[in-house]
C-alpha cells in the first residue's frame, strides 16, 4: 500500500484539516497551521448552540432552537466518529478518541490556528521537512490579491518602509 502524504505550506483549516488527518504523513511549513474541525451550522458553531441551550431552562428555549441543538449534537458526533475513524489505525484507539474529542468539541473558535508546535503537543505526527520543490512550484503560481483580509504567499522578500 502506498503512503499518502499531505503537505501544508500555509494553512489547512476545517475541511483541509480533515484531509490532512486522512493522510499517513503530514508535512507542514514551520509557520503553517491546522484548524479545529468542529461542525458549523449556518453561522453558529455546533458546540456553542448546545452550550447555549444547556444554560437555559428548557421552558425558556424555543422549539426551533431545541431542534437546532439536536442537529448540532448529531453533527458533532458524526464528525467526531469520522475523525476517530481516520486516526484509529495510525494512533491507536485511545489516542484517536482523544484527538477526535479535542478537535471537535468547540474548545477553540473555528478559525483557531493550531501551529506545528501545538499539533505536536496534541500528539499529531507532523514534521516540517517540506521539500524545496513545493516552494519552487508555488513561486510559479502567484496568488491573486483579494479585497478582504487573507493570507497571501509572497515568493520573495518584501521590503517594508523604514526597514533595511
What would your notes on this structure say?
The chain is an alpha/beta fold. Helices cover 45% and strands 12% of the residues. The protein has a 3-stranded parallel beta sheet, covered by helices on one side. Helix 2 packs across helix 3 and helix 3 runs antiparallel to helix 4. The mean pLDDT is 91.
Order of helices and strands: EEHEEEEHHHEHEH
Overall strand count: 8
Cα gyration radius (Å): 19 Å
Overall pLDDT, averaged?
A: 91
Level of helix content?
Answer: 40-55%
Instruction: Please identify the structural class as seen in this structure.
Output: alpha/beta
Note poorly predicted spans: none
Question: What count of helical segments does DSSP give?
Answer: 6
How is this structure best summarized?
With 164 residues, the chain is α/β, with parallel strands linked by helices. The chain has helices at 15-22, 46-54, 63-91, 93-104, 116-122, 132-139, and strands at residues 5-8, 11-12, 25-28, 33-34, 40-41, 44-45, 114-115, 126-127.
Which terms would index this structure?
single chain; three-stranded parallel beta sheet; 164 residues; alpha/beta; three-stranded mixed beta sheet
Secondary-structure blueprint:
Blueprint: E1 5-8, E2 11-12, H1 15-22, E3 25-28, E4 33-34, E5 40-41, E6 44-45, H2 46-54, H3 63-91, H4 93-104, E7 114-115, H5 116-122, E8 126-127, H6 132-139
Amino acid at each position: 500500500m502506498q503512503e499518502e502524504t499531505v503537505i501544508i505550506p500555509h494553512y489547512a483549516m476545517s475541511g483541509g484539516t480533515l484531509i490532512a488527518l486522512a493522510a499517513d504523513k503530514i508535512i507542514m511549513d514551520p509557520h503553517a497551521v491546522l484548524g479545529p474541525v468542529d461542525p458549523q451550522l449556518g453561522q453558529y458553531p455546533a458546540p456553542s448552540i448546545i452550550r447555549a441551550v444547556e444554560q437555559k431552562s428548557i421552558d425558556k428555549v424555543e422549539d426551533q432552537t431545541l431542534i437546532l441543538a439536536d442537529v448540532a449534537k448529531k453533527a458533532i458526533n458524526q464528525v467526531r466518529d469520522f475523525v476517530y475513524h481516520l486516526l484509529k489505525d495510525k494512533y491507536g484507539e485511545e489516542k484517536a478518541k482523544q484527538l477526535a474529542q479535542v478537535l471537535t468539541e468547540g474548545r477553540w473558535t473555528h478559525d483557531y490556528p493550531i501551529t506545528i508546535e501545538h499539533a505536536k503537543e496534541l500528539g499529531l505526527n507532523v514534521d516540517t521537512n517540506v521539500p524545496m520543490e513545493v516552494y519552487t512550484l508555488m513561486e510559479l503560481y502567484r496568488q491573486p490579491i483579494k479585497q478582504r483580509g487573507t493570507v497571501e504567499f509572497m515568493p520573495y522578500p518584501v521590503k517594508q518602509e523604514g526597514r533595511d
